[in-house]
Specification:
Layout (H helix, E strand, L loop, with lengths): L6 E2 L1 H8 L3 H9 L6 E3 L2 E5 H10 L5 H7 L5
Antiparallel strand pairs: 1-3, 2-3
Length: about 70
């Protein structure tokens, strides 16, 4: 997490991912995503959401083949 990151509310994080607030709260509860606790408030850094998206992006078949050195 970068110290200059914008900290998003749970609602803003849900909107960014196109999901419901319950999904974000479940990610937090299961500790599947990093978050910042400010008193009773929870915030998620913008870079954490970006990393979450990148880690879960499924490559195309062509990209997957090139990772293994096969001809596409």
């Amino acid at each position: 997490m970068n110290t200059t990151d914008r900290l998003l509310t749970v609602g803003e994080a849900a909107e960014r991912l196109g999901t419901g607030v319950r999904f974000i709260r479940r990610l937090i509860q299961e500790r599947r995503i990093r978050y910042v606790k400010l008193g009773k408030h929870v915030r998620i850094a913008d870079s954490v959401l970006t990393a979450y998206i990148v880690e879960r992006t499924v490559p195309t078949l062509r990209e997957a083949r090139s990772l293994f050195g096969e001809a596409a």
